[in-house]
Amino acid sequence: MAMLVLLVLAVIPFLPMLGAIPGLSGNRVAVAKVEPPVFSTAPAMIDGEETTYAPPEDPSLSLTVPSLGVYGHTVQDDASAEALDEGAVKIPSTGFPWERSANTYIAGHRVGYRDTESYYQFLELPSMKKGDEVILEDGDGGQYVYAVTEIFAVEPHETWVTEPVAGKDMVTLQTCTESVEDWETIGPEVMVSGPDTGRLVVQAERV
Description:
By secondary structure, the protein is of the alpha+beta class. The protein has one domain (59-206): Beta Barrel (Sortase, Chain: A). The protein has four helices and ten strands, in the order ααββββαβββββαβ. The strands form two sheets. Strands 4-3-7-8-10-9-6-5 form an eight-stranded mixed beta sheet, with no helix packed on it. Strands 1-2 form a two-stranded antiparallel ribbon.
């Protein structure tokens, strides 16, 4: 009996550790690290009730900005110069509108090229005002409506404007300006989009 008591006393200190091992505890479950999905689901309204919206297979978007006279323009998920010359592009490293806390970052030309959607696409971007509407639509017909909250210019190296802001669903529109201070002039700096140009940034939040 004495030997049995000693054996029990010797095992008791190890019981907490045994409980953490799968299969040795009836009331604990081993927890593995789970990586978040590539796409999160965003809320959508169907018949007045909130549901989840699965991301579309086609990553391209449609852009409408009534104050700019832009309706249903294609936004490619491609930041190449060739894609930008065709029309607006989403910076691939930034989020999609169906992702939570995304900053969907879209760039477009001020002047662009004739016979493409880039032609004068963001010419009047400096005239946008707070409250102006920006609408994105995905390949499955899901709509995301935003209202302009901020209009400002940055230097080309200030890439922080592409980053998401916790708790906010955003879309950002960008185009080149003659300089950070001069948003209106259409001059040689805008046409070459060099390091001395400014970047006009219009940010809108989901409504």
